[in-house]
Amino acid sequence: MDLAKRRAAMDEAMAARGDWPERSPWLREAVAALPRDVFAPDRLWRWDGQQYTAADRHADAESWAAVLYAGPDEAAVTQVTGGLASSSISAPGVVVDMLDSLRLEPGQRVWDIGGGQGWNAALAAWRAGPGRVVSTEIDAGLADFARRRLADSGLEVEVLTGDATTTGPGGRRFDRVIATYAVERVPWTWVEACRPGGRIVYPWGRLGHVALTVADNGSSASGWVQGLAQFMADRTGPVPPTAGWAGYTAVRGSGPAVFERRIDRDLAPLEGDWNLRFALRVAVPDAMVTTGRDEDGINAWVHDGRSSWASFSAVGDGTTVLHQGGERRIGDALMTAWTVWEGLDRPEPYDFGITVTPDRQWVWLNDPGVDGPRWPIGDTAPAASR
């Protein structure tokens, strides 16, 4: 196993794609000084199409390294609970993108939330300096692992065990807050822990990460979507709906469809247009969408993890048959959101932003300070203007 070669190959792959951010050249240096293998446990997990199987460093070092350095967009699963991935070392490209969004400067105080194995905290500490980073991890075993690896790397980082969703690190204030697990709504604890003018970077739900700036009076935080990524969900929040065919069939059941109609729309964009997929995620946040292709075109299966479902079956002439059932017509909600997105001139994810206050949160489009499209977070209402 030649880790030096794998590190170099990853560095070159990221350089070829332009992943190393020009405004944060320190990140490339930090990753070289603190490579991800230093913070990886001896057992990783890979998906074989049906289940997670172990890749053990001592039994098969090459397979272990291949999982860890699979590519810029590939996370390495480090923990499996009940057959599901419950912790990982995030994909290198995403880690770099989020730390670049943090706009971290030497000497700033950082609260790293969801510390995992400690790699993100290590990179932040490389930039911020000794004693400037506090990391919180809810899993005591992971927290102990991170403490040891950080100390072995000569980094002075305080690692706390606790639930950062509800409790801040002893009332301390930070210049920067960064989370590495996904939340749908930002805990107000995070805003309170960040000084006015400070930045909060976090993964928003199933898709995308956001950078908020805390208002001068501390009464709100607002900022833009920074990129697309998927992260582990908050362990203390509601269990996310199961994706894929298994999730759909569990909600669909065996009963007949309540509603059926033909749609004059080709679903091909659902397969690969991530601008559309993100817009649908904004407008119908609980909709889990799975696509598949046959000789007639793109088909889609949608569910909300509770009771509502929809199936879109391509006919072959550019139209689609929609069947749906459950508490609400989730298929119609998606079609409405798609039409609204087109009417808004097909905005990209980077055209959206989020504002957080103590009592409500919402997504906005293009400008947080004007009346325009707003989508409340925590509600399934379609896009509206106010």
Kindly summarize this structure in a few lines.
This protein is of the alpha+beta class and 386 residues long. It has helices spanning 3-17, 26-33, 61-68, 92-102, 119-128, 140-152, 188-192, 244-252, 268-272, 274-283, 330-343; strands at residues 43-47, 52-56, 76-81, 84-89, 110-113, 133-137, 157-161, 174-179, 194-203, 209-214, 221-227, 259-263, 288-294, 297-303, 309-314, 320-325, 352-356, 361-365, 373-376, 384-385.
Task: Tell me what the structure shows.
This protein has 386 residues and is an alpha+beta fold. It folds into 2 domains: 3-227, 3-Layer(aba) Sandwich (Rossmann fold), CATH 3.40.50; 244-343, Double Stranded RNA Binding Domain (2-Layer Sandwich). It has 11 helices and 20 strands. The chain has an 11-stranded mixed sheet. A 5-stranded antiparallel sheet has the order 12-16-15-14-13. It is globular, with a radius of gyration of 22 Å. Mean pLDDT is 91; it is low at 379-386. It is an enzyme of class 2 (transferase). It comes from Kitasatospora purpeofusca. Keywords: Cytoplasm, Methyltransferase, S-adenosyl-L-methionine, Transferase. GO terms for molecular function: methyltransferase activity.
